[in-house]
Amino acid sequence: MHGRCISCRFFANDPALIEATFPGLNVLSSAYGSVRSDAGICSRHEFFLSSWQRCRDFESGDNEGKDALLPVEKKLIGYSIGFGAVLLGILVWISYTFFPTGH
Question: Which one has a higher pLDDT value, 16 or 84?
Answer without folding.
Answer: 84
